[in-house]
Write a structure and sequence with these properties.
five-stranded mixed beta sheet, 3 helices, alpha+beta, 5 strands, 128 residues, single chain
Amino acid sequence: MKTEDEIGSIVVDCAVKIHKELGPGLLESVYEVVMAYELSQRGLRVERQVPIRIRYHDIVFEEGFRADLIVEGKVLIELKSVEEVNKAHKKQVLTYLKLTDYRLGFLLNFGEALMKDGISRIMNGYLN
């Protein structure tokens, strides 16, 4: 069983590889399916478009949001393909982490010219 950090390293490697091969600017859905494929080729269990319940007071809403990718039931990935991410995108991932109790999430923006500029590593409780 891999740790969050080990999974995170694989996520970053896959994102860079995909960006080099496909380039920026495709639809998020394209990067999602290719990212899921690459991660699974590296032996990781990947779920796509996972409905996440939220609890508000004593009410549970079955589908509060959908996580783009959940890796090994530990790491949440939100994908974007925009010119630049803003603080709201990062806060969104942080909120998703809080709602799921996952410790590690990634915001991957495939719209950047260089993938390294499109990777945001976000820890539950911390916003970089």
